[in-house]
Structure formats: structure tokens, C-alpha cells
């Protein structure tokens, strides 16, 4: 009886591992664009790597404002990546008992 329980748990763990790998691959392929006031857009990968920065000419007149807009646009993209990551990983771990507040290390 105990052995069947362990075998079933091992099978569930293997399935979850496969789903996690697929979710990680989807996340790695993901690109999102964050923006600030329509003047600055940044494209970030699912691994939070900055891929592209687009700056409207009008934003270049004020260096301090431009710096703030870049930070804001990156923060917007970062939040989108975090939301996508949470969604993908929750789908991968569906059905597996996870402790409350458990956060995966990626």
C-alpha cells in the first residue's frame, strides 16, 4: 500500500517536472513591452533581459525625465514578466500540494 502511494507521488512529481520545464521554455521565449507615458518603450525577455529600448524624440529634451521614463518602462515590463511567470508556473504545479506562500526559485 505504501509503495503504491510513493510510486504515484513519484509519477506526479515527474509530470510536474515536465510541465515546469515546458513553462520555463515558454517563459524564456516570452517578450513583453513595458512603456512609460508613450514616450519610452522597453522590451524585456521572460528572463528579465533587456532586449530593446525605443525612445520618442520628444523625450530626449529632458535628460532627467528620460531617465525616469526608462526606469518606469522597465518596471512595467518587469511586472508583466512576473505575472506571466506566476501564471505559467501555477499551471505547471496545478494539482500538486504546495505550502502556502511557496515561491519557486525562478
Automatic annotation (TrEMBL):
It is found in: Cytoplasm, Nucleoid. It comes from the Bacteria. GO terms for cellular component: bacterial nucleoid; cytosol. Residues 6-33 form a coiled coil. The keyword Cell membrane does not apply. InterPro entries: YbaB-like_sf (IPR036894), YbaB/EbfC (IPR004401). One of its GO terms (molecular function) is DNA binding. Keywords: Coiled coil, Cytoplasm, DNA-binding. Belongs to the YbaB/EbfC family. Homodimer. Binds to DNA and alters its conformation. May be involved in regulation of gene expression, nucleoid organization and DNA protection. This is Nucleoid-associated protein DP176_05950.
Amino acid at each position: 500500500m505504501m509503495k503504491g502511494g510513493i510510486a504515484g507521488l513519484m509519477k506526479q512529481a515527474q509530470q510536474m517536472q515536465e510541465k515546469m520545464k515546458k513553462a520555463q521554455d515558454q517563459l524564456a521565449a516570452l517578450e513583453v513591452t513595458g512603456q512609460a507615458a508613450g514616450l519610452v518603450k522597453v522590451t524585456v525577455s521572460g528572463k528579465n533581459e533587456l532586449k530593446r529600448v525605443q525612445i520618442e524624440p520628444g523625450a530626449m529634451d529632458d535628460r532627467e525625465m528620460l531617465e525616469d521614463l526608462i526606469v518606469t518602462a522597465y518596471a512595467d515590463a518587469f511586472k508583466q514578466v512576473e505575472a506571466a511567470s506566476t501564471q505559467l508556473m501555477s499551471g505547471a504545479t496545478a494539482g500538486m500540494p504546495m505550502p502556502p506562500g511557496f515561491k519557486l526559485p525562478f
